[in-house]
Amino acid sequence: MALKEVLIDELRDMYSAENQLIKALPKLAKGAKDQTLKTLFTDHLEETKGQVERLKQVFQSLGEKPTGQHCNGMEGVIEEGADALEKDEEGPSFDSGIVGAALRTEHYEIAGYEACISMAKTLGLSEVASMLSENLTEELTAAKKITAAAQPILKAAARQPEEAEKKPKSGKEKYSDKKSKEDEKKAAPDLKKRAA
Q1: Are 77 and 101 in contact (CB under 8 A)?
Q2: How far is CA 57 from CA 4, 45, 54, in A?
Q3: Are the C-beta atoms of residues 55 and 119 closer than 8 Å to each other?
Q4: At what angle do helices 3-31 and 91-122 cross, to 10 degrees?
Q5: pTM of the prediction?
Q6: pLDDT, average across residues 72-89
Q7: Model pLDDT for residues 12-60, shown as the tens digit of each residue
Q8: Concatenated DSSP letters of 122-166
Q9: Rounded to an integer, what distance in angstroms lies between the CA atom of residue 113 and that of residue 10?
Q10: CA-CA distance, 8 to 114, in Å (whole number)?
């Protein structure tokens, strides 16, 4: 597969990711307790819509269609955000989980745009690289804003008392715990090789 074909696949992945976020960001905004987070998610939704339009321009300049690939990675990251919204936490601790999910989303996008920009530059597609750089700048800015907004939330969460009694795990949490143990078990032989 030629590099340009790889770039097209990666761009389709980013297009799918951004479209998925257009549906997910309103849920994060609605679920967040902190007003600053709500505003950040709402503002970033508008940026994300602009990023989708910019990606359409990239595809037009390349003579390609933007659809054809579903971003499974973003689907998984969004699922983690949905899990954070379902947690039985209160106040700042609840928003702390949303912050973690939001930052994972931003960093996933940042990595995708950096890869696409590198490929575009290598192929001499400076106009494409420039448009993608605009999206990347917005993602970097969004991550910085979320990190800044998180500081008072995390400090408030740190002051919350720990629950005296652990709540029973939901079915989803039990399943996640089981999968985590399976992941650890599968990685154990490779970790032993490293230690030797």
Answers
A1: yes
A2: 16, 19, 5
A3: no
A4: 160
A5: 0.87
A6: 90
A7: 999 999 999 999 999 999 999 999 999 999 999 999 999 999 999 999 9
A8: HTT-HHHHHHHHHHHHHHHHHHHHHHHHHHHHHHHHHHSPPPSSP
A9: 9
A10: 14
Residue with tokens 């790889």: 6
Q: Are 129 and 114 in contact (CB under 8 A)?
A: no
107 is written with which tokens?
């960093």
Sequence-separated (6 or more) residues with CB below 8 Å from residue 181:
none
For residue 159, pLDDT over 70 is answered with yes
Block residue for tokens 């990595």: 111
Contact 146, 43 (CB under 8 A): no
Work out the mean pLDDT of the chain and round it to a whole number: 92
Tokens of 178: 């089981």
What is the C-alpha end-to-end distance of the chain, expressed in Å? 38
Q: How big is the chain, counted in residues? A: 196
Q: What is the pLDDT of residue 167?
A: 65
- Average pLDDT, integer, range 50-78: 96
Q: Which residue has the tokens 């993602």?
A: 139
pLDDT at 191: 81
Strands (E), the chain: none
CA gyration radius, the chain:
19
Q: Are 107 and 142 in contact (CB under 8 A)?
A: no
Q: Residues 33, 7: contact at Cβ < 8 Å?
A: no
